[in-house]
Amino acid sequence: MAAHLSDEIMTELLEGSSSLEQEGHLAACEECASRLGQAQATLDLALQAEVPEPPGLYWEVLRRNVSRRIAEEPRRRLPWGWLVPVAATAGAIVVALSLGGHSPGASGGPQALPPWSALPPIEEDLDLVVVSGFALENDELAGWDEGRGIGAFIVALSDEESAALVEALRAERREGDL
Amino acid sequence: MAVTAQAQALPLVLAAGAAPAEGPGSPREADREAVEACQRGEREAFDELVVRYQRKMYGLCFRYVNNHEDANDLTQEVFLKAWRAIGRFRGQSAFSTWLYRIGVNACLNFLAKRRPHTQELPETLPDSGIRADQRLESRDQARRVREAVQRLPEKQRATLILKIYQELTHQEVAQVLGSTVGTVKANLFHALGNLRKLVAEERG
To answer: Where exactly are the structural domains of chain A?
Structure first.
């Protein structure tokens, strides 16, 4: 009789793949047939040992916990993260070059808004029309733009100056209403 | 209902387990897309992977630690480790294989810390002569089998868990454990032999 079947072949037999030669061996070899039978019985036993199902909402809670813990993690550095400071520097240079020699107030005409401004472009800003109207009607306000044009004037205002202008316009409006 | 999907029908033989389908629309392709999104920093994509694999990872961890609390903690740790490392995942294996590797390592580390002086069982155990092919009668008996699985030597235990309970192919198990298909097959047969003896021991 041929040598006993190897453990590797036994596993293949458990999976249902067998050759005629192996089937012949099993039919003739009581020891191999017994080993295979025991392995199948143990497999059957093992499959019955299930993992207990956690309570109904567990999976959702688990998902949320993982999500929350990930959100609390320090921001992950991407493998190409080194590009970020390079890109930021390049961007800053481009912005600086595009603005160079064109600071608000340096030229006579309206300026394009800086690229990071939340305001719309001057030609699309309807509020400027209203502001210009007020300024033209009021000698005092008209003097504030120092002859640079209302667009450039407004762009160059600091936060405090903007607030002062708004307050002045509101006061003007209130007086008008009265 | 139990976590493992295999218990729906008890096959007399192991499923041979075809390699996971690839190509558009396949689970592996869906994983790949989600991984790429994660690598772009999209956390929602990782959420998708968590939903897809949380049962499997929990099942894997439970098989190692045999209690809900530790399995829960470990499952979360596995996903956190995966998130932290996903930028380095290059797709040379399936995402699931990579995740299982993280899972098995996390479980082994956990057990090593919890039981630093665990007695290593010999690769083969003496046969007590008690038949193990009797039907389990209660949850308590199921628990005893799970405990017996925990007492298997490390490689055999990992092979049994990944192949029988997680339904990985021999090739996938070999990838997770850094082994060969032949070794996996042999280890599985040894694991079944030792499990039979351990269960019989616990009954005796």
So the answer is: 7-48, 124-175
- CATH class for the domain made up of B25-119: mainly alpha
CA B170 to chain centre: 12
Model pLDDT for residues B64-111, shown as the tens digit of each residue: 999 999 999 999 999 999 999 999 998 889 999 999 999 999 999 999
A34 in contact with B, Cβ within 8 Å: no
CB < 8 Å to A73, chain B:
80, 83-84
- Annotated domain spans of chain B: 25-119, 132-204
How far, in Å, CA of B16 to CA of A47, rounded?
A: 15
Q: Is the pTM of this model over 0.90?
A: no
In chain A, which residue's Cα lies nearest the Cα of B59? A51
Query: Which class in CATH covers the domain with range B132-204?
Result: mainly alpha
Average pLDDT, chain B: 83
Residue A41 vs residue B2, higher pLDDT: A41
Here the ipTM equals 0.78
**Chain A closest CA to B63's CA: distance in Å?**
7
Chain B residues in contact with A6 by the CB 8 A cut-off are 186
Burial of A112 (0-12, 13-18, 19+ CB in 10 A): middle
The tens digit of pLDDT for each residue in A11-43 reads 999 998 888 888 899 999 999 999 999 999 999
Which of helix, strand or coil describes residue A169? helix
Give A69 to chain B, closest Cα distance, Å. Answer: 8
- Per CB-CB distance under 8 Å, the chain A contacts of B136 are 45, 48-49
Q: Cβ distance A7 to B190 under 8 Å?
A: yes
- Give residue for tokens 């990071």: A116
